[in-house]
Design brief:
The chain contains twelve helices and two strands. The chain is mainly alpha-helical and 306 residues long. The protein has a domain of 209 residues. The termini are far apart.
Length: 306
């Protein structure tokens, strides 16, 4: 039977994956850059945060450090593409491949356990005494709102507009004197920085990090984006699009958590479940579009006949 605890757990995890979805949204939707380094970058953020917390660094500071580590990853991918002229997909794959070794160097082992150390969630729980999951929910909601409005502000500035314009029409931007290479590097740095923040937050949520925790991150992020865009398709305003992506991540994780908790599907089949969710979201969107076109066509035909 569906329980409130199950929904709460799914929502907490969804708010963590919202950072990843927002990061991938920047690279895939705004920059039109197929960056596949997401999986390695997610693990990198978790590794950096886990190592720092284990070393006594404040959890909040570890999140900031993870963000800048992710920015470096994005810069590397951007340089491979802009300076060495490597295609976007291949540049992302090269970075992701290198990160498997880099992450192991950071962690010095395949796993890190920070259960004996206070995380950001533990600190808030100690302050409010409302339970760890409610603390995670509060932190997640506040940080997602902060990140969404920060992105909305930045992408509305002149510098942010160059990033968006580069993804829309790179040739036109170059004709206007915009350095599109720098815009791509900046966008990828911001994108991967957010992905790394998601890894850092998940590391603190589950009090551990491992070298394979980022596997499938890109698919989860894309599923979240598609779900959010399908539900908020008619939403006006860029800030609503960003919130839609974050809400899509929450919906996706709630669906997955409910299905696994109800033993409808084994956790081993999570990839299959993700594929089904994406297929349903895309199919539903196409069906709704076709239905609306058919209704409009019938309406115009009746008017013409009259």
């Amino acid at each position: 039977m569906l329980s409130f605890d199950t929904l709460l757990t799914g929502a907490c995890q969804g708010l963590i994956w919202a950072f990843v979805a927002l990061g991938v949204f920047i690279s895939f939707r705004l920059l039109d850059f197929a960056d596949l380094s997401c999986e390695g970058c997610f693990t990198c953020g978790a590794a950096v945060s886990g190592v720092l917390i284990a070393g006594g660094v404040p959890p909040a500071l570890s999140v900031i450090c993870a963000f800048f580590a992710g920015c470096i990853v994005g810069i590397v991918t951007g340089l491979l593409h802009t300076k060495l002229k490597i295609p976007p997909i291949l540049a992302g794959i090269l970075t992701m491949t290198a990160l498997f070794s880099v992450n192991l160097m950071i962690m010095q082992s395949p796993n890190i356990n920070i259960g004996k150390h206070n995380t950001l969630y533990d600190q808030v729980n100690g302050l409010l005494e409302i339970g760890r999951r409610y603390s995670a929910l509060i932190i997640g909601v506040l940080l997602v709102i902060l990140v969404v409005y920060a992105l909305y502000w930045f992408l509305g500035t002149e510098l942010g507009c160059t990033v968006r314009a580069t993804g829309d029409n790179e040739k036109m931007c170059r004709a206007q004197g915009v350095n599109t290479d720098n815009a791509k590097i900046l966008g990828l740095a911001l994108s991967n920085g957010l992905v790394a923040v998601g890894g850092s937050m998940l590391c603190q949520y589950q009090s551990s990090a491992n070298s394979t925790m980022g596997v499938g991150a890109i698919v989860i992020a894309l599923a979240s984006i598609i779900i959010g865009e399908t539900i908020f398709k008619r939403a006006r305003g860029f800030v609503l699009r960003l919130f839609g992506v974050a809400i899509g991540a929450v919906i996706y994780r709630v669906i997955v958590t409910v299905i696994i908790d109800a033993n409808i599907m084994s956790p081993d089949n999570l990839k299959l479940l993700t594929a089904l969710v994406i297929t349903v979201a895309l199919g539903l969107s196409a069906i709704l579009d076709s239905a609306k076109k058919a209704i409009k066509h019938r309406g115009s035909h009746k008017k013409g006949g009259a």
